[in-house]
Amino acid sequence: MKISGFQLLLAILLAVAAGCIGAFAANEWRQSSHPQTLHDFVHDELDLDAEQNSRLEQLETSFAVERKELDLSLRAANVRLAAAMDEEHDYGPKVAAAIDDVHARMGDLQKVTVRHVFAMRALLDPEQQRRFDHQVALSLTGEPGE
């Protein structure tokens, strides 16, 4: 039985949809275990003063724009991967290049996020930084840092 290009594309789209649903479910489960995001922690637990709040809002606004651009870039890279898979029907050079592109976009997003975390940390006083560092370690590993 020969699989048509349409059937392959449909299978890819269904796999992506299933992956998204799984990621959403995992995120919901994780949030039930650790319901507080890093931003929530900073706002709710660190008793920021007015200046810190103002500077944090500026950082968050800038980060939101940058993150949205990177999210769109990652989605576009995934579309190119789907097209390469549909074209080659094998792990060929176009698929390999498209995968590298997806990984590069993911890396860009992670780098921007880590820079944002350090920018938030720079707004804090030493005691707030200690608590922040503990929360970052917990967020990344599920275990408190030292």
Explain this structure.
The protein has helices at residues 5-33, 38-45, 50-88, 93-122, 126-141. The chain is mostly helical and 146 residues long. The chain has two domains: 1-33; 36-141, Four Helix Bundle (Hemerythrin (Met), subunit A), CATH 1.20.120. α1 packs antiparallel against α3 and α3 (50-88) runs antiparallel to α4. InterPro entries: Metal_resist. This is Heavy metal resistance protein. It holds the Pfam family Metal_resist. Keywords: Signal. Residues 1-25 form the signal peptide.
Measured distance between first and last alpha carbons: 58 Å
- What would you say the CATH architecture of the largest domain is? Up-down Bundle
- What is the residue-averaged pLDDT? 84
Quote the beta fraction. under 5%
CATH topology of the largest domain: Four Helix Bundle (Hemerythrin (Met), subunit A)
The biggest beta sheet reads:
none
Number of domains as seen in the coordinates: 2
Signal peptide: 1-25
Keywords: Signal
Protein name: Heavy metal resistance protein
Pfam families: Metal_resist
Task: Describe the SSE topology.
Layout: H1 5-33, H2 38-45, H3 50-88, H4 93-122, H5 126-141
Helix pairs in contact: 1-3, 3-4
Offer a few descriptive terms.
Four Helix Bundle (Hemerythrin (Met), subunit A), 5 helices, mainly alpha, 2 domains
Task: Please outline what is shown here.
The chain contains five helices and no strands.
